[in-house]
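dumping the sequnces here before i forget
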Amino acid sequence: MIVLTCARAAAADGLDGERFAPSVGVEGTFAVEHPSVAEHKDWGIGLFFHVASDPIVVRDGDDVTRRVLETAVTAELVGSFGLFGKLELGFGLPLHLVYEGQGFAGGGALLAPTDGVGDLRLVPKLALIQDLRPKRRLLLSIGLPITLPTGDPEAARGAGGLTAMPALMFGYHRRRGIGFGLTLGYKLREEHPTDLPYGDAVVLQPWIAYAATANLTLRAELLAEKMTDAAVEGADFPIELVPGLDYRIGSVDLFAGGGIGLSDGIGAPAFRLIGGIRYRHFRNAGKKGGPR
Amino acid sequence: MKTWMIALAALLPLAAHAAPAPPPDDAYAAWRCGDGSLMADAQADDPDFLGDLDLVGTDTAPAALRAGDDDFLYLRIRLDADPAPGGVPNPGGVWGVAFDLDGDSTDYELLIVADATPASPVVTVRTNRTVTVPNSPLDPADAPPAATYTFRDAASARATSTTFGGTPDYFLDLAIPWADLEPLGLTPTSSVRVWVASSSLPDALDGDFACHAAGSGAVVLDTSASRRGDGGGPRLEGGGGCRATGGAGLLAGLVAIALAARRRSRRSS
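..and the predicted 3d for all of it:
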C-alpha cells in the first residue's frame, strides 16, 4: 500500500499557481525585469509581500464552483549584484506564508495547496546597450532567468522541473516624463504536465512608468504568457495588469500596487495586493545618473 | 412482452434525468486536433461518406465542439447535410465521439454515438474494456451499451450559418447525462482525447474523421487523436478575466494619487 501511495504521488502532475515574481534587479519595477544593470560591485536587496485572490479556480460558465488556490500570501526576498558594469546577477526566493484552497484532483493532476517555499529564481542579465544621457536613457539587455525546482508542484507552488527564459529587455526613459519598455522572452519548462494547461510559453511584458514627482513614480506592467505546447488545451493564456506606485527615499524604494487578472488563464488572479521595499547600495552614487 | 420489457429497461436511464437544456452556441468549446489547431475537416474528403455523413469544418467554424452544464455533456458535430430531417435521422447513419480516458491513445475507453441503423434510432454509450483491434477505431466497443436513449430525447439537428460545398451545413447535437457517464470514468473535469467521426457501424467509428484527411490512409488512433481537453464541463482557470470584478477601482485610485502628487509637487516648486 505504501508503495502504491508513493507511486501515485510521484506520478501526479502539478504546476506553479503563483505567476507573480518580483523583479530582482536594482531598478525599481514590480515584476518586469528592467534592462538596466548595476555598476561593478553595486548591489540591491528587496523584500516584497503580495496577496493574491483566486489564482486558480474551477469555473462552470460564469460561476466559480471550486476555489482550488483561494488565497496566496507570499513573501519574496530578491537581490542582485553588479559585475563589470555590464553584468548583473540576481535571485528571488518566494516563501508562501499562506497558501490555501480547496485543491483539485482530475486525471493525473493533483493540486493540493500548502504553505512552503516556491521555486528559487536566478536571474543573470547582460547589458547590450546602455545609452545614458542627461535627458534620456536607452537600454537593451538580454537575460536568462532560470528557476530551480525547490517548490512542490503538487502543492501548486513549483514548476516541477527546471525552467529557463531567454529574454530580450528593452527600456527607454525621458527625464521627468514617460518611461516605457518591453520584455520579450520564451519560457522553457522541463516538465509539461499531461493533464494541465501548462507548458513552454511566449512571454510578453510591456511596461510604462510616469515620474509624477522627483520621488514618486507611477508604474503599470502587463504580465502576459501564452503557452505554446501545453499538453492540455484550456486556460493557457494568463494576463495580469500590475499598476502601482514607487516612492523613493534616498537609497530605498517603497512599492505599493495591485494586480488585476485580465484573462482566465491559470495563475491570473481576481486581484492582487503588493507591497515591497528595495534598498540599493551604489558605491558611486549618481555616476549612472539620467532620468529614473 | 419480454422483448418490450427489455427495450423499456434499456431506455430507462434518460427517464431518470432532467431534460437537457442545450447551452447557447457561445458556450461550446471546440475540440482541438493533435497539432493544437481547432478540429477541422475538408468537405467531401471521403467519397464513401458524403452529405450528412461528411464532417466539415475549419479553424473558424470547427467541426466538433462540446459543452457541459451540471447535468449533461453536450457534443456537437458539424455535417455537410441534415442528418435528421424533420427530427428523424437518415437510416443507416451513425455519428459519434470516442474518448480516451486513460492517457493511452492507442485505444479508446468510451464511445458515444447517435445510431440510426436500427428501426428506432438511438443514442448509445458504450465502454471498450477489451481491445481486439489495437490502435484502430475499428476496434468494436462492448455490447450491450452501458446506456441507451431514444434519438428524440438525446439528439437533435439544426442548420448552421456555414455552407461548405455551397449547401447549408447542420449541427448534430447530443446530450448525455453526466450521471451515466461518471460511473464509466468520464467526468466534467476528465482530461480526455477524442476522435470524432461518422460511421456505418453502431459500435465503432469507420467513416469521415475530423483531424484526418481521408486520402492519407487508414485512421490510426494515436496519430489522429485530439489534443487533451476537459470533458466539457467546469474547467480549471485563473480567477481573473472579464468575469472578475473589483480591479478597475484600484487602477483609478493609483492614477488619482499620482496626479495629486504631481500637482502638489508643482505648487511647492
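Chain B has one domain: 25-268.
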